[in-house]
Design a protein that fits this description.
Elements: E1 10-14, E2 18-20, E3 23-25, E4 28-35, E5 41-46, E6 61-67, E7 70-84, E8 91-102
Antiparallel strand pairs: 1-4, 2-3, 4-5, 5-6, 7-8
Length: about 100
């Protein structure tokens, strides 16, 4: 389990309802967690916003889904979360080092 940031769990806020991997997510603030793996990552949106990164409660998960990492063309020195192609569907990239686990 990785809190996908530093110290407290990373907060992600949706101004309107969204759909992630086919699951409807109401507008609001959530905690973002990931479970990294060499060939697959698990992305977790959790209701426990504001909690310490070490206080994860699986019962508060809103959605979990798997994604395949892809190798970045260049080394990414700074941890980065990007939202691209924001329309009816978008892509999210989480990048550090030579991996882009979510894209």
């Amino acid at each position: 389990m990785w809190r996908t940031g530093a110290n407290n769990a990373t907060k992600i806020t949706f101004g309107t309802a969204v759909k992630l991997n086919g699951v409807d997510i109401p507008a609001g603030a959530y905690a973002l967690y990931t479970i990294p793996g060499e060939t697959e990552w698990t992305i977790i949106i959790n209701k426990g916003v504001g909690q310490s990164g070490t206080q994860y409660d699986e019962k508060a998960d809103v959605v979990r889904f798997k994604t395949k990492p892809v190798k970045a063309a260049e080394t990414i020195e700074t941890f980065t979360i990007e939202f691209n192609h924001i329309r009816d569907e978008s892509a999210v990239s989480i990048s550090l080092g030579r991996r882009r686990p979510c894209r």
